[in-house]
Amino acid sequence: MKTALVTGAAGFLGSHLAVRLLAQGYQVIGIDNLSTGTKLNLSGLNGQERFRFLECNIAETDCLNLGELAGADEIYHLASAASPKFYQQFPFETIQANTTGTWNMLELARRAGAKLVYTSTSEAYGDPTVHPQPEEYRGNVNTWGPRACYDESKRLGEVYCYEYAHRYQVPVKVARIFNTYSAGLRNDDGRVISNFVYQAIRGDDITVYGDGLQTRSFCYVDDTVRALMLMMDRDQASGEIINVGNPVEYTVLDVAKLVQRLAGSTSAIVFRLLPQDDPKVRRPVIDKARRLLGWEPEVGLEGGLRKTIAACRRLLAQGGLP
Asked: What are the NAD-dependent epimerase/dehydratase domain coordinates in residue numbering (predicted)?
């Protein structure tokens, strides 16, 4: 039986990944310091025989030296605040998770002979001047602004991965993840889909920043998790950076209108000032994912939003919002 270590296991994506790994027969060790992850996300995991949760900070050396981690076969390094609200609230912790924390997980992989998938981000492209974005594009990132703590620390995390891949031949794979969604996103994290869905089903104003003509690409969580597991499994992905996202592009305003319609909401759409350094366009080129992984998204935005809205209504009715 293989053992998978998932950092950020109490987060949105980490908890979904842990559930999928358990379903595939893995022994799963989840790590999280619960700074932005929640115990509610672990509710479907705790008590399962093959799951163990450790509350610790991966940026601290003590975490690296935990004996339970020595037998890990695969390491999925997802730990980091991922929404602007939280990484701007915790900038230094975000930098540490993506730099020192990444270094620690790579060192653990080297010692254990484990494979590692590092979840980087489409924010590595910044406010892109190349559209859509292939992996070869080096980005247009502002190092002196409120998003830099996340964007630049993720980029430096990629550098650590490069060094361990080339100096120590650690089988490292880097996923640049584009917007991922489903039920389970915190209702207070400030991300587009979670904002729109919770506002719509509560009848609150749906808040669009700027004129809403900036574009995004949205990938349903099941597709993203499947891509991460394929990256871990495929040797040809070692030493590669691979975009993971849906290449279908929407304006933010169109998404707001779609959520409004699918939720049958009477909410008004209102406009607020656009935050500094907010990207104007975002769409992945996924040719490499198709070629190396045989992967592409299967869930379209409308279908994914219908599932998300239905699940969020159930959570709201139960009083169990994350």
From this structure: 4-245
